[in-house]
Amino acid sequence: SSSLKPHIVKALLIADSNLLNIERVFNQFHTYRDQLMPYLHEKLMSLNMLRRDEIWTIGVNKLLDNYRLSYILNSVVLESELDYKTYIWVLTWMMSTSHPNIRGRLMRIIRVLLSDHTNFCLTFIDLFHSVNDPYILYGLYGAIYGVLLINRDRNLSDSIAEKIFTYHYKDQVNVPSEVSVRSWTLKILEFA
Fold it and tell me: Which residues contact 42 (CB under 8 A, 6 or more apart)?
């Protein structure tokens, strides 16, 4: 497969906001998986919530129709570890939606996938701990707490709790201000 140079990918993301279109991400899943996902993540992380809502979350919200959401979510065949990682990555970004029923469904899917791929839990905490959207942290940490309850893996629980503590409680400035996010992080710490 061809590989785009990193500076070309960044230029494309700056020039073409349609690359941040959720339906395009699913329609061109393998291109995003192989080349664009780190840049999509960097771009979405760099945006304030208002701007991200304008160019990303509105598209996710349009998937409210259950059939459309199901169609999009089932449009990707997951075969490799990279497929699963990319899929969970995209679903975690979709947690920015303002519709609680979509967030609930995504959180359950993420929990199931992370239960089968627990090695990704720490990766996604690293990727998202500083995101400026409490819906995303709420969904990710809620899913990870579910993974801990189901898997009962002491080493995994300890590793996750250590990351959560380091990112959110080691320095008082980083304590989550959003009550739901704080609740999930504290439940993770208590479980360990």
Answer: none
Q: Name the nearest CA neighbour of 93 among 54, 41, 143.
A: 41
Query: What is the spatial distance between Cα 74 and Cα 71, in angstroms, rounded to a whole number?
Result: 5
The total number of residues shown for the chain amounts to 192
Q: With H, G, I as helix, E, B as strand and everything else as coil, classify residue 177.
A: coil
Q: How many CA atoms lie within 13 A of 53 on its CB side?
A: 10
Question: Against a cut of 0.85, is the pTM above it?
Answer: yes
Residues 20-50: tens digit of each pLDDT: 889 999 998 998 888 888 888 999 999 999 9
What phi and psi values does residue 94 have, to the nearest 5 degrees? -65, -20
131 three-state secondary structure: coil
**Cα 2 to Cα 156: distance, rounded to the nearest angstrom:** 37
Return the residue matching tokens 């360990």: 192
Q: What tens digit of pLDDT does each residue of 3-24 get? A: 666 676 666 666 666 778 899 9
**Residue 53, both tokens:** 């809502």
Local structure of residue 132 (DSSP, 8 states): S
